[in-house]
């Protein structure tokens, strides 16, 4: 039975790790993650704007680092919940854009 996946390409065209992970994710799962990232991004930008208005440069760095690490952590948890066969190192290769 063919799965309704986001991407079906020759693994030679794109990084093998990225293709394997994208094949494991259904299109609606990727859409969920994109919506999640946009929502968190807007929240981080809101904190950044508020801290700039108050002159807190340190808060900007803290909010960005926390936002990015939180998004990455939740992404890993979400992918593992969808498909237990996905290894964390496969997901991290896609997140950091490294070829495997």
Task: Give your account of this protein's structure.
The protein is an all-alpha fold and 100 residues long. The protein has a domain at 26-88. It has helices at 16-24, 27-53, 57-82, 88-96. Helix 1 crosses helix 4, helix 2 packs antiparallel against helix 3 (57-82) and helix 3 (57-82) packs across helix 4 (88-96). The protein is elongated. Keywords: Membrane, Transmembrane, Transmembrane helix. The chain crosses the membrane at residues 30-50, 56-79.
Brief overview, please?
With 100 residues, the chain is an all-alpha fold. It has four helices and no strands. The radius of gyration is 16 Å and the shape is elongated.
SSE layout and pairings?
Layout: H1 16-24, H2 27-53, H3 57-82, H4 88-96
